């Protein structure tokens, strides 16, 4: 038995020669020639919902395969040795429109709150341009899977092992890499948190694909105007987008902040890559929690509800009395609803 693995006893199928085994996780995958005998003991390889991938320890039947742990209200297997949970690695993606340094600064309070909850291992991941994935040949759907390859590589660099459980968090555009990594890594990901981002839908082009195409038809003012709509408290952006065309160009050319901002927005939104909805994401075995920012018109509870279609497990739709950006920051009283929720919810993975 591998250290720390769960052990299950077969308690069903006594009168049927054991329980049915299939070669794959799906209920329509090929059925094994033998059944897994009653009173056999198996080691858990992977548990996805109610389907157990096992390795035979004692008893008779296929050496390995997939079985259902219950049918309706009837248990077929019972977990007799449940190892203590391995501590997770918490991985987070910030919103688009930020440099790596500013994105890390934005998420610093979140990472501190997660650490205070008892999660030791934490990592902030970035967008494609931070990994020098940009320019000709890197636009559109085609290269997104290579970006996910890079994210998995970066995660494994900081993981204790390539099997360490993961908890993923994506704010705004960070939702896209979060759910795509969860799709790629399957049962290794235990929880996905999505903040202030309307639901992605399998088989449908994402909002970022639509934005990219629209911005290619527009200009710099449209880029900055859209970004300002997400943070209306930003007076500097407000003054820039309200200027006449010639004044706008003059201000952009004379302002390093605005020219750098536009360069970043072009890379991350206008000339960006984005997920292929038929390939890069699907319903995941992890729990999904969506945070609706009630002061943000684009992430109301109804916009978050369809995230439930991308989980095979538990879904929660949590409302926050906050805006698109300030949902990640303590209020004047030093409180942050999102942080308080996370600190309670993360206990399930560390105790």
Helix content: 25-40%
Q: How would the global form be characterised?
A: elongated
Number of strands: 13
Main pleated sheet: 6 strands, parallel
Percent of sequence in beta strands: 15-25%
C-alpha termini separation:
23 Å
Mean pLDDT: 92
- Indicate the multimeric state: single chain
Radius of gyration: 23 Å
Q: Could you give the order of strands across the largest sheet?
A: 9-8-10-11-12-13
Q: What sequence of helices (H) and strands (E) makes up the elements? A: EEEEEEEEHEHEHEHHHHHEHEHH
In summary, what is this structure?
This protein is of the alpha/beta class and 351 residues long. It is built from eleven helices and 13 strands.
Verbal overview:
The protein is an alpha/beta fold and 351 residues long. It is 32% helix and 20% strand. The protein has helices spanning 100-116, 144-158, 175-185, 207-217, 220-230, 235-241, 245-254, 256-270, 301-304, 337-345, 347-350; strands spanning 7-10, 41-48, 51-58, 64-68, 70-71, 74-75, 77-81, 89-93, 121-125, 166-171, 189-195, 287-293, 315-320. It has a six-stranded parallel β-sheet with strand order 9-8-10-11-12-13, sandwiched between helices. Strands 4-3-2-1-7 form a five-stranded antiparallel β-sheet, with no helix packed on it. The protein starts with 6 loop residues before the first strand and ends with a helix. The mean pLDDT is 92.
């Amino acid at each position: 038995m591998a250290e720390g693995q769960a052990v299950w006893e077969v308690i069903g199928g006594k009168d049927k020669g054991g329980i049915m085994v299939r070669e794959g996780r799906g209920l329509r995958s090929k059925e094994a020639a033998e059944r897994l005998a009653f009173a056999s003991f198996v080691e858990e390889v992977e548990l996805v919902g109610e389907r157990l991938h096992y390795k035979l320890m004692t008893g008779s039947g296929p050496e390995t395969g997939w079985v259902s742990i219950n049918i309706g209200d009837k248990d077929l297997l019972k977990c007799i040795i449940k190892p203590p949970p391995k501590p997770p690695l918490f991985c987070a993606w910030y919103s688009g429109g930020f440099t790596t340094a500013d994105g890390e600064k934005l998420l610093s309070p979140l990472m501190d709150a997660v650490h205070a909850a008892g999660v030791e291992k934490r990592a902030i991941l970035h967008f494609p341009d931070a990994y020098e994935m940009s320019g000709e040949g890197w636009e559109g759907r085609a290269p997104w899977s290579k970006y996910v390859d890079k994210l998995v590589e970066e995660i494994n660099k900081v993981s204790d092992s390539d099997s360490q459980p993961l908890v993923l968090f994506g704010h705004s555009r960070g939702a896209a890499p979060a759910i795509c990594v969860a799709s790629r890594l399957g049962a290794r990901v235990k929880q996905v948190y999505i903040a202030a981002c309307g639901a992605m839908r399998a088989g449908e082009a994402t909002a970022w694909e639509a934005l990219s195409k629209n911005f290619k038809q527009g200009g710099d003012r449209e880029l900055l105007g859209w970004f300002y709509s997400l943070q209306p408290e930003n007076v500097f952006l407000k003054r820039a987008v309200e200027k006449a065309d010639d004044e706008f160009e003059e201000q952009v050319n004379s302002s390093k902040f605005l020219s750098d901002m536009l360069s970043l927005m072009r890379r991350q939104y206008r000339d960006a890559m984005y997920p292929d909805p038929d390939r890069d994401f699907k319903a995941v075995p992890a729990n999904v929690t969506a945070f609706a920012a009630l002061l943000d018109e684009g992430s109301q509870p109804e916009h978050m509800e369809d995230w439930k279609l991308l989980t095979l497990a538990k879904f929660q739709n949590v409302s926050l009395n906050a805006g698109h950006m300030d949902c990640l920051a303590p209020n004047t009283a030093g409180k942050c609803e999102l942080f308080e929720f996370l600190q309670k919810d993360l206990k399930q993975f560390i105790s």
